[in-house]
Write a structure and sequence with these properties.
With 245 residues, this protein is α+β, with helices and mostly antiparallel strands. It has a single domain, classed as Lipocalin. An eight-stranded antiparallel β-barrel has the order 1-4-5-6-8-9-10-12. Strand 9 and strand 10 form a beta hairpin. The protein is elongated, with a radius of gyration of 27 Å. The termini are far apart.
Length: 245
């Protein structure tokens, strides 16, 4: 009896068998891709603000009678935010189960500090929220229109509410102190405290710090879009290059 041809597997059955394989491959690609994206974006996140070795290298310090930089420890007067300053936010996203650290920053920071007899008596700072930028234009657009309506609330501000006793600074030395004040974001004002590090060099100084915040307290609703969500807390962080006079 002649061999009978083996009947071909129906095409429909092959398609049914392939569907779960394709789904598994797509899920694996999304998972691996999100992990790669998370590690890449986290690597691109800016480091937390820290003090430089010598603020402004003492370049703007007043010259003494011999022409050398002044080492005066009299810090009384008005200190103004200058070039090289920045402020912004730090938060964590969860993208398809992967943790992503995001930093947004702007150099549009202004303001003054007032010191009298080694006491910080006033501080008024302002940043332009609409110019804060991250590594993603889509994220920035969401932040400026939905998280915060920057057309209605273009600035964030901080005002000191309690004087701060400062130790007598020596050029190049660092000190840490705690500030208390009113932070206004998205038109909402809340009382906050934060630790600040400072370094002094003649008539220049650097101040850095992070302010822990819960976004809902400022009327900011963290996005939760299914594939990406944002933790409900984060930091406002800053590095201020100050000049006296």
């Amino acid at each position: 009896m002649p061999d009978q041809p083996v009947p071909a597997r129906p095409r429909k059955n092959r398609l049914i068998w392939m569907i779960p394989v394709l789904v598994a491959l797509i899920i694996a690609a999304v998972f691996i891709g999100s992990r790669i994206y998370a590690s890449t974006v986290s690597a691109q996140a800016e480091a937390a603000p820290s003090l430089t070795a010598t603020p402004a290298a003492g370049a703007s310090s007043a010259a003494g009678p011999t022409g050398s930089a002044s080492t005066s420890t009299d810090i009384s007067g008005t200190w103004t935010v200058g070039a090289g300053s920045y402020a912004g936010y730090r938060l964590n996203e969860i993208l398809n189960g992967a943790d992503v650290t995001v930093t947004g920053r702007t150099q549009d920071v202004s303001g003054t500090l007032t010191v009298k007899n080694n006491t910080l008596t006033a501080a008024n700072l302002e940043l332009q929220v609409g110019t804060i930028a991250t590594d993603s234009g889509n994220r920035d657009s969401y932040f400026r229109t939905r998280a915060i309506d920057t057309s209605q609330h273009p600035t964030a501000t901080f005002a000191l509410t309690e004087p701060v006793e400062l130790s007598t600074p020596a050029a190049g030395n660092e000190q840490t102190f705690t500030i208390a004040g009113d932070l206004t974001i998205n038109g909402q004002t809340r009382s906050i405290t934060a630790e600040v590090q400072s370094a002094y060099a003649g008539d220049t100084a650097q101040l850095v710090g992070q302010i822990p915040v819960t976004w809902a307290e400022f009327g900011v609703e963290p996005p939760n879009l299914g594939f990406v969500s944002v933790e409900d807390h984060g930091f406002i962080e800053f590095s201020l290059a100050m000049t006296k006079g």
